[in-house]
Amino acid sequence: MPNIKLFSGSSNPQLSQKIADRLGLQLGKVVSKKFSNQETCVEIGESVRGEDVFIVQSGCGDVNDNLMELLIMINACKNASASRITAVIPCFPYARQDKKEKSRTPISAKLVANMLSVSGADHIITMDLHASQIQGFFDVPVDNLYAEPTVLKWIMINIHDWQNCVVVSPHAGGAKRVTSIADRLDVDFALIHKEKKKANEEHRMTLVGDVRNRVAVLVDDIADTCEDICLAADKLVSSGASKVYAIVVHGIFSGPAIARLSRACFEAVVVTNTIPQQEKVQHCPKIKVIDISMILSEAIRRTHNGESVLYLFSHAPLE
User: Fold this and answer.
1) Among residues 31, 72, 73, 168, which is most buried (max CB within 10 A)?
2) Cα–Cα distance for residue pair 52/6, rounded to 1 Å
């Protein structure tokens, strides 16, 4: 494709390489380093004048360093007279800080949106935002893609008797996500309501729906410490579920997450590669990875050619 440059940040180079391979492109030359005082320095190693630039950087690992690296890369390309700069952010950083939970707390997702705009980004491509309203924080176009088509494909290929499964949300906030998947599969859905009656009292979980003698598929957008999703799995088993699977778009798996997943009663924990998972798979064989590079690469191709990305909201591109 002419007049296009694809650069990778240091957060997820494996995903960036897969995207480049699918597009038939070479990753652009970029050198990222730190000074002795830990300031980030980025040098773009080739001309981007008049080019359509795409920068792939996920909000994972050292989140603050990677975010700063992305902002500097965008600004470097802007100052080098790039025609358009698109930030491809598979996992959006600070997405869970999208509203004020109480007084004197920040809306950090809005701050990140402002920083990206000020640095020079003309367009944002991301995946499964924690809250779709985050798109409204930007004054530039945002394409919020979904892993749902690849999730549906995985369920139909890998879960025996999936026609009789139940799609479950581990919390009330994920009801829209699971109902969409359940409707596409034409199966039942359920959700787990969690409430805390008193201070220092454990959360009480209530299952709304019937999973007795059926396969339960827990679906969520983010798994961090995995406490809630493991408690939800225990609740499903105690309610009679024959097997429990977990499907998560962004597998952060911080702190005791891997130990919890290893002990939990999951048949498999399925995540996408918006965040690198190679090391975690070695420590927990239950973790299975879905590749979403084909969705992002097709979104980049369509954006560059001025085509609609609507197709990608409901269909997985061919491998």
Assistant:
1) 168
2) 9
- 138 and 307 in contact (C-beta within 8 Å)? no
pLDDT at 288: 96
- β-strand pairing of 123-127 with 40-44: unpaired
Write down the pLDDT at residue 199: 47
Q: Are 84 and 123 in contact (CB under 8 A)?
A: yes
* The token pair that represents 245 in the structure block: 């699977």
Helix (H, G, I), strand (E, B) or coil at 312: helix
C-alpha angle 264-156-310 in degrees, rounded to nearest 5: 110
* Residue 223, strand partner residues: 251
CA distance 128 to 221: 7
Summarize pLDDT for 235-285 with one digit per residue, the tens.
Answer: 999 999 999 999 999 999 999 999 999 999 999 999 999 999 999 999 999
Q: Which of 137, 124, 108 has its CA nearest to residue 74?
A: 124
Which residue type sits at 70? L
Cα first-last separation, the chain = 19
Query: What would you measure as the largest C-alpha separation in the chain, in angstroms?
Result: 62
User: Under the phi-then-psi rule, with left for phi > 0, alpha for psi from -120 to 50, and beta for the rest, what region is 148?
Assistant: alpha
Alpha helices in 186-307 (DSSP H): 227-238, 257-263, 278-283, 293-304
The pTM of the full predicted model, rounded to 2 decimals, is 0.93
